[in-house]
Amino acid sequence: MTFKAEDQVDGLRSGLLAETGAMRLAVWGLVLLSIAFVGAVIIWPERAIAFNQEGGLIETVSAAGLLVAGLAALWRYPGVARLYIGLTCLLLAERELEASFYQEDSVPFHILNSLDIALDITLVRIVLVCAVLGGVVWHGIPMGLRAFKQRTPFLMVFLAAGSIAVIAQLLEEFSGLNSVTLSVATETRLFVLEEMLEMFFSIGILAAVLIGWPKLQSDENIHDQDFRSCANIR
What we know:
Elements: H1 2-43, H2 45-48, H3 57-76, H4 83-96, H5 107-119, H6 122-150, H7 153-177, H8 184-211, H9 216-233
Helix pairs in contact: 1-8, 1-9, 3-4, 3-8, 4-6, 7-8
């Protein structure tokens, strides 16, 4: 029975390590695919501009990624202290889309217009600010420091997504400050690249939420102890 328990522990470890390897392979595949997309946008910006209009495909994907991330965060991380994760993602998703993009009698228009009206209420803004800032101070910063020490995958993905968002913002600022001197092709290229990077940011945030806090080591130790204790008893 001892050998059987140890075999089960080894099988558990092998399965978890294989899952981690598959995750790394998927991440590198997405990175290479993203680089290929960025290269294509830089070379042929006029072809990508068709998907980059207000309310277009790229902006819709960005909003959808943040919306799914927000809903997933509310489901996976319940509790008042972690409410800020889902709220932040949902607020970013609402910022990506505007009610004016849709027809006035459509369902998306009524939903977004109602959200705009609700977010204009001072009391709602105060509650959201308190929930987000309180969650960041009470939960986000301590957990972020702990995740940084352990170099957890979700934090690495989150930092990469944040860096992409910073680059996109810098491109927007640069394009706005130098709009007079930039050529039409360069300005188009920067605009398309900025929207593309914002889409990657949304996908990165969604990936970080889905990856979550790693349970590899803790689960492995728990199963080790369970199997070994059962083997010793028998």
